[in-house]
Amino acid sequence: MIEIDAVSKRYPDGTTAVDRLTLEIPDRSITVLVGPSGCGKTTTLRMINRMIEPTDGRILLDGQDIRERPVNALRRSMGYVIQHAGLFPHRTIVENIGTVPRLLGWDRQRSRSRALELMERVGLDQSLAKRYPYQLSGGQQQRVGVARALAADPPVLLMDEPFSAVDPIVRKGLQDELLRIQADLGKTIVFVTHDIDEAIKLGDMVAVLREGGYLAQYAPPNQLLSA
Ligand code: ADP
Ligand code: ADP
């Protein structure tokens, strides 16, 4: 479980991005942070993997303050997926997906077979293995981003608007794939979106954030009050 305990973030220019946020994020389910642009979703996600430090409050992972863990170990336990996939342009698809295993010291062969296995898992044809990111569609690139985040089998996935840049039909395919992956692998997923329909479709729990970074609602999708 990830516990966000009265966390605030004020940036040095005085902007309050997150205001006394308290959330319990259950294991092995999808928790969606939803709200308009600027309500603190990305800031919250980045505090969970310590790319940003809170101004107040604390975050616990399995009962332990995340500041007590080595930051590299923390980040290795959390796959991270961003909107435009953020793939390495000069590396092939298998190399992109195998990045973290290679960093962990796996040899080329083992990283490669892991990457191929993950391509299948996210619905990518193996014929794409030796291509470069620019040779893939936006939706395929996002699948590679998801595969790369899963490569070291982290218990947690942090996903920041991963499907927002693709057209609605491709987005639906990606959402369905994520639900399948979640059903198979049981990751703890924190998913950021500004799209309430996506939040309702994907979330086991939905946290509705408002301007100024405060939590308006936290409930399963079928118990959300209309805004
Ligand atoms: P969201 O992901 O919901 O769009 P963000 O977490 O990116 O929201 O931003 C929350 C608020 O913090 C916004 O008002 C944004 O402009 C502000 N903000 C984000 N990053 C910085 C920064 N580095 N410095 C100052 N303000 C920032
Ligand atoms: P951006 O501002 O473009 O989102 P970031 O600084 O967040 O860039 O990330 C740079 C690159 O590092 C991205 O490719 C991102 O996917 C990757 N990255 C960021 N945080 C993590 C993390 N905790 N674990 C693994 N990769 C990460």
Automatic annotation (TrEMBL):
Residues 2-227 form the ABC transporter domain. Its EC number is 7.6.2.9. One of its GO terms (molecular function) is ATP hydrolysis activity. Keywords: ATP-binding, Nucleotide-binding, Transport. It is an enzyme of class 7 (translocase). Belongs to the ABC transporter superfamily. This is ABC-type quaternary amine transporter. It comes from Streptacidiphilus fuscans. The chain holds residues 1 to 227 of 409 of the full protein.
